[in-house]
């Protein structure tokens, strides 16, 4: 007897390719043997366990300040955390936000990290076209399409989403430009870690503002600033927010403390103009369950007030050291085979493009590293001491029907966040050996199978 699914339920009943790949690998992942360059976990050494314990004890001891911390909280978020974030964003000059801008913007806390804020947008905004970059934040792009949105992926260049490509794609939409729901831009792109230049950030805002004026409606532009706190390259240009210059009230920033404190705290926030959208987002948080655990929000507030300067310095120093070491190892092991290497200045990803080597899950390169080649000399026995190496194939990072669908089959995202440098160096050695041993010699796992896509047509579209 069939269950009656919503359209979203029908789409979700078919897990995305990256969902299946990660679940399959995680089931058999062997700690200390297999090497994880795929899942974007932060490095365990960056999590300030002692300071988090200190924060918990402070919350328990100071019931006057941290009221009813183990009870339900309000859907807008802890007043203490909101005040701490305002001080942090203003005092640390994150995005060069000034006190006047912060005072006239509303700040709300999501129910479960920044991802929950992104998910809420898909429920409070009418389905339509979402303009974003390519490579794209594949997890969110998949989620958008399951919700009935259409993703318009614009190839990036060295400064972020390309303006010429954006103009060309908007022109091609014609009257369908009225179906644009919003712009979604990562200021440090995941997967590529390309840094959005301040000039490009302002230019993208100007495009959204121009469309808003032409269509006599607000077309929001959401800047995902998740990795801005991890700008560890001293030569990189400091970020500059567009919020101070947003005279149309269409710009929002979505941030998180996951990258600099602890992902399990699930602290995500949105900063933007007062209005119906913010009110709807708070109501969505209420519907979800009153917000993130209040005691965790209060702990985050305490760390922001007491320890965040030292924590940021330590985290960025650690990632800078790893970025430089891993870049050198990439050049030594894979340099002769690479067409391009992006990243290494912010966040903890490198995005690699091979000249000729394919990286998709049916490729010889992938199956060598996953030990699923079918050749016992490569795979070893079931209890083989040979490590498996996981990465995110570029095929999953680019839009399935976008301009980069072909080149994505030669790309992959490498995370230097979770594993230590010696393990990453070892993994790169195995990649070099994979190229030398099999190259393109292994036949595709299923050469006749079409490329998988979790895309579903938006409402009113044909497939």
Care to count the β-strands? 14
Supply the number of helical segments: 16
Low-confidence stretches: 446-463
Q: Helix coverage percent of residues?
A: 40-55%
Overall structural class, as computed from helix and strand content, comes to alpha/beta
As a whole number of angstroms, the C-alpha radius of gyration is: 22 Å
Mean of the pLDDT scores? Answer: 92
Give me the side-by-side strand order of the main sheet.
2-9-8-7-6-3-4-5
Question: What is the oligomer described by this structure?
Answer: single chain
What shape does the CA trace take? Answer: globular
Strand content: 5-15%
Largest sheet: 8 strands, mixed
End-to-end gap: 27 Å
N-to-C order of helices and strands: HHEHHHEHEHEEHEHEEEHHHEEHHEEHEH
Describe this structure in words.
The chain is an alpha/beta fold and 463 residues long. Helices cover 40% and strands 14% of the residues. The chain contains 16 helices and 14 strands. It has helices at residues 7-12, 17-28, 49-61, 79-91, 99-104, 113-124, 138-146, 163-173, 198-215, 276-289, 294-306, 308-334, 364-370, 376-379, 394-397, 421-437, and strands at residues 35-36, 105-109, 129-134, 150-157, 160-161, 180-186, 221-224, 251-256, 268-273, 338-343, 349-354, 389-390, 392-393, 411-415. Strands 2-9-8-7-6-3-4-5 form an eight-stranded mixed β-sheet, with helices on both faces. Strands 10-11-14-13 form a four-stranded antiparallel β-sheet. Helix 4 (79-91) packs parallel to helix 11 (294-306). The longest helix is centred in the last third of the chain and has 27 residues, at 308-334. The radius of gyration is 22 Å and the shape is globular. Residues 446-463 have low confidence and may be disordered.
């Amino acid at each position: 007897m069939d269950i009656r699914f919503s359209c979203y339920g029908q789409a979700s009943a078919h897990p995305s390719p990256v969902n299946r790949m990660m679940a399959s690998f995680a089931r058999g992942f062997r700690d200390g043997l297999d090497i994880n360059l795929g899942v974007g976990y932060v490095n365990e050494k960056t999590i300030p366990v002692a300071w988090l314990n200190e924060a918990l004890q402070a919350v328990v001891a100071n019931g006057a300040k941290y009221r009813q911390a183990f009870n339900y909280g309000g859907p807008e978020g802890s007043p203490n955390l909101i005040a701490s974030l305002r001080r942090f964003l203003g005092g640390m000059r994150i995005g060069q936000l000034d006190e006047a801008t912060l005072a006239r913007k509303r700040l709300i806390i999501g129910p479960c990290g920044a991802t929950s804020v992104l998910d809420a947008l898909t429920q409070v905004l009418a389905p339509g076209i979402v303009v974003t970059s390519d490579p794209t934040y594949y997890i969110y792009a998949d989620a958008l399409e399951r919700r009935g949105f259409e993703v318009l992926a614009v190839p990036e260049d060295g400064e972020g989403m390309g303006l010429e490509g954006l103009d060309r794609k908007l022109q091609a939409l014609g009257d369908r430009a009225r179906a644009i729901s919003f712009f979604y831009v990562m200021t440090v792109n995941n997967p590529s870690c390309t840094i959005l230049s301040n000039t490009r950030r302002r230019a993208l805002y100007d495009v959204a503002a121009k469309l808003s004026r032409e269509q006599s409606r607000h077309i929001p532009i959401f800047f995902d600033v998740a990795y801005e706190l991890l700008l560890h390259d001293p030569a990189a240009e400091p970020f500059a927010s567009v919020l101070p210059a947003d005279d149309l009230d269409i710009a929002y920033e979505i941030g998180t403390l996951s990258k600099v404190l602890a992902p399990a705290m699930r602290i995500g926030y949105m900063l933007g103009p007062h209005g119906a959208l913010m009110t709807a987002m708070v109501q969505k948080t209420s519907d979800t369950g009153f917000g993130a655990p209040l005691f965790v929000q209060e702990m985050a507030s305490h760390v922001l007030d007491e320890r965040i300067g030292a924590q940021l310095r330590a985290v960025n120093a650690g990632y800078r050291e790893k970025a430089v070491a891993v870049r050198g190892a990439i050049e030594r092991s894979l340099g002769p085979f690479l067409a391009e290497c992006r990243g290494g200045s912010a966040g903890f990803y490198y995005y690699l493009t091979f000249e000729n080597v394919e990286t998709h899950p049916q490729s010889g390169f992938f199956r060598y590293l996953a030990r699923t080649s079918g050749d016992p000399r490569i795979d070893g026995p079931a209890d083989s001491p040979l490590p498996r190496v996981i990465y995110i194939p570029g095929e999953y990072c680019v839009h399935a029907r976008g301009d980069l669908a072909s080149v994505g089959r030669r790309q992959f995202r490498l995370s230097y966040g979770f594993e230590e440098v010696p393990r990453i160096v070892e993994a790169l050695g195995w990649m070099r050996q994979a190229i030398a041993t099999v190259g393109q010699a292994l036949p595709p796992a299923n050469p006749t199978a079409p490329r998988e896509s979790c895309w579903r047509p938006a409402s009113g579209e044909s497939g």
